[in-house]
Amino acid sequence: MPLIAWDDSISLNISEIDNQHKQLVKIINELFDAMKNARGFDVLEDILARLVDYTAYHFSTEEKYFAQFRYIESEPHKEEHKFLIKQVNDFKKAFDEGQMKRDGSDRVLTVDLWNLLKNWLINHIQISDQKFAPLFKENGVK
Protein backbone atom coordinates (compact mmCIF):
# COMPACT_ATOMS: atom_id res chain seq x y z
CA MET A 1 0.00 0.00 0.00
CA PRO A 2 1.41 3.42 -0.92
CA LEU A 3 2.17 6.06 1.66
CA ILE A 4 0.16 8.63 -0.30
CA ALA A 5 -2.84 7.61 -2.36
CA TRP A 6 -3.90 10.11 -5.00
CA ASP A 7 -7.47 11.28 -4.45
CA ASP A 8 -9.71 14.30 -4.87
CA SER A 9 -8.48 15.88 -1.62
CA ILE A 10 -5.14 16.64 -3.24
CA SER A 11 -6.34 17.30 -6.77
CA LEU A 12 -6.53 20.86 -8.08
CA ASN A 13 -8.45 19.72 -11.16
CA ILE A 14 -5.73 21.28 -13.29
CA SER A 15 -4.18 18.47 -15.32
CA GLU A 16 -0.77 20.05 -15.82
CA ILE A 17 -0.24 20.69 -12.11
CA ASP A 18 -1.98 17.51 -10.94
CA ASN A 19 0.21 15.39 -13.23
CA GLN A 20 3.31 16.99 -11.75
CA HIS A 21 1.98 16.45 -8.22
CA LYS A 22 1.31 12.81 -9.10
CA GLN A 23 4.95 12.44 -10.12
CA LEU A 24 6.06 13.84 -6.76
CA VAL A 25 3.69 11.43 -5.00
CA LYS A 26 5.17 8.58 -7.04
CA ILE A 27 8.71 9.47 -5.96
CA ILE A 28 7.69 9.69 -2.29
CA ASN A 29 5.88 6.35 -2.54
CA GLU A 30 8.96 4.76 -4.12
CA LEU A 31 11.04 5.83 -1.12
CA PHE A 32 8.40 4.50 1.27
CA ASP A 33 8.17 1.16 -0.56
CA ALA A 34 11.94 0.79 -0.58
CA MET A 35 12.09 1.48 3.15
CA LYS A 36 9.38 -1.10 3.86
CA ASN A 37 11.51 -3.63 2.00
CA ALA A 38 14.77 -2.59 3.75
CA ARG A 39 16.11 -1.00 0.55
CA GLY A 40 15.88 2.65 1.60
CA PHE A 41 19.62 3.20 1.46
CA ASP A 42 19.87 1.51 -1.94
CA VAL A 43 17.46 3.93 -3.61
CA LEU A 44 18.14 7.06 -1.61
CA GLU A 45 20.78 8.55 -3.89
CA ASP A 46 18.55 8.17 -6.95
CA ILE A 47 15.43 9.42 -5.16
CA LEU A 48 17.19 12.47 -3.75
CA ALA A 49 18.59 13.37 -7.17
CA ARG A 50 15.15 12.96 -8.77
CA LEU A 51 13.51 15.02 -6.03
CA VAL A 52 15.99 17.86 -6.47
CA ASP A 53 15.42 17.89 -10.23
CA TYR A 54 11.68 17.34 -10.22
CA THR A 55 10.83 19.83 -7.49
CA ALA A 56 12.82 22.50 -9.37
CA TYR A 57 10.94 21.63 -12.57
CA HIS A 58 7.54 21.60 -10.86
CA PHE A 59 8.09 24.80 -8.89
CA SER A 60 9.29 26.59 -12.03
CA THR A 61 6.00 25.65 -13.71
CA GLU A 62 3.91 27.11 -10.90
CA GLU A 63 6.11 30.19 -10.58
CA LYS A 64 5.96 30.84 -14.34
CA TYR A 65 2.18 31.08 -14.02
CA PHE A 66 2.48 33.23 -10.87
CA ALA A 67 4.40 35.81 -12.89
CA GLN A 68 2.24 35.46 -15.99
CA PHE A 69 -1.04 35.90 -14.06
CA ARG A 70 0.38 38.30 -11.43
CA TYR A 71 -0.56 36.01 -8.55
CA ILE A 72 -0.84 38.24 -5.50
CA GLU A 73 0.40 35.61 -3.02
CA SER A 74 3.36 34.50 -5.10
CA GLU A 75 6.11 35.61 -2.69
CA PRO A 76 4.93 33.63 0.36
CA HIS A 77 4.20 30.67 -1.90
CA LYS A 78 7.70 30.81 -3.39
CA GLU A 79 9.10 30.88 0.17
CA GLU A 80 7.35 27.55 0.81
CA HIS A 81 9.00 26.20 -2.34
CA LYS A 82 12.41 27.44 -1.16
CA PHE A 83 11.89 25.73 2.21
CA LEU A 84 11.30 22.33 0.61
CA ILE A 85 14.19 22.73 -1.82
CA LYS A 86 16.52 23.55 1.08
CA GLN A 87 15.33 20.57 3.10
CA VAL A 88 15.77 18.14 0.20
CA ASN A 89 19.18 19.63 -0.65
CA ASP A 90 20.21 19.24 3.00
CA PHE A 91 19.27 15.55 2.91
CA LYS A 92 21.13 15.13 -0.39
CA LYS A 93 24.20 16.86 1.02
CA ALA A 94 24.15 14.60 4.10
CA PHE A 95 23.98 11.57 1.84
CA ASP A 96 26.67 12.82 -0.55
CA GLU A 97 29.02 13.60 2.35
CA GLY A 98 28.65 10.11 3.78
CA GLN A 99 26.65 11.12 6.84
CA MET A 100 24.19 8.36 6.00
CA LYS A 101 25.58 4.86 6.15
CA ARG A 102 24.31 1.39 5.39
CA ASP A 103 24.68 0.48 9.10
CA GLY A 104 21.07 1.42 9.82
CA SER A 105 21.73 5.06 10.67
CA ASP A 106 20.15 5.90 7.33
CA ARG A 107 16.78 4.62 8.57
CA VAL A 108 16.13 7.65 10.77
CA LEU A 109 17.06 10.04 7.99
CA THR A 110 14.94 8.28 5.38
CA VAL A 111 11.96 8.22 7.77
CA ASP A 112 12.55 11.92 8.44
CA LEU A 113 12.73 12.56 4.70
CA TRP A 114 9.50 10.80 3.77
CA ASN A 115 7.68 12.32 6.75
CA LEU A 116 8.83 15.75 5.61
CA LEU A 117 7.84 15.07 2.00
CA LYS A 118 4.48 13.52 2.80
CA ASN A 119 3.43 16.22 5.26
CA TRP A 120 4.80 19.09 3.23
CA LEU A 121 3.27 17.94 -0.05
CA ILE A 122 -0.19 17.17 1.31
CA ASN A 123 -0.39 20.40 3.32
CA HIS A 124 1.08 22.46 0.50
CA ILE A 125 -1.37 21.15 -2.08
CA GLN A 126 -4.44 21.24 0.16
CA ILE A 127 -3.78 24.72 1.51
CA SER A 128 -1.34 26.80 -0.54
CA ASP A 129 -1.94 25.41 -4.02
CA GLN A 130 -5.72 25.53 -3.60
CA LYS A 131 -5.37 29.32 -3.33
CA PHE A 132 -3.97 29.75 -6.84
CA ALA A 133 -6.13 27.10 -8.53
CA PRO A 134 -9.03 29.45 -9.39
CA LEU A 135 -6.66 32.00 -10.95
CA PHE A 136 -4.95 29.35 -13.05
CA LYS A 137 -8.30 27.97 -14.23
CA GLU A 138 -9.62 31.48 -15.04
CA ASN A 139 -6.57 31.97 -17.25
CA GLY A 140 -7.05 28.71 -19.13
CA VAL A 141 -4.52 26.42 -17.46
CA LYS A 142 -5.88 22.93 -17.89
Would you spell out the secondary-structure blueprint of this structure?
Elements: H1 15-36, H2 40-69, H3 74-96, H4 105-138
Question: What is the CATH first-level class name?
Answer: Mainly Alpha
**CATH topology title:** Four Helix Bundle (Hemerythrin (Met), subunit A)
CATH architecture: Up-down Bundle
Low-confidence stretches: none
From the alpha carbons, calculate the radius of gyration and give it in angstroms.
16 Å
Mean pLDDT: 89
Tell me the major beta sheet.
none
Q: What is the CATH homology-level superfamily?
A: Hemerythrin-like
Number of strands: 0
By helix and strand content, what is the structural category?
A: mainly alpha
Q: What is the straight-line distance between the termini?
A: 30 Å
Shape: globular
What does this structure look like?
It is a single chain. This protein has 142 residues and is an all-alpha fold. The protein has a single domain (13-138), classed as Hemerythrin-like (Four Helix Bundle (Hemerythrin (Met), subunit A), Up-down Bundle). 77% of the residues lie in helices and 0% in strands. The chain has helices at residues 15-36, 40-69, 74-96, 105-138. The two termini are 30 Å apart. The model has no long low-confidence stretch (mean pLDDT 89).
Task: Give the tags.
Four Helix Bundle (Hemerythrin (Met), subunit A), 142 residues, mainly alpha, single chain
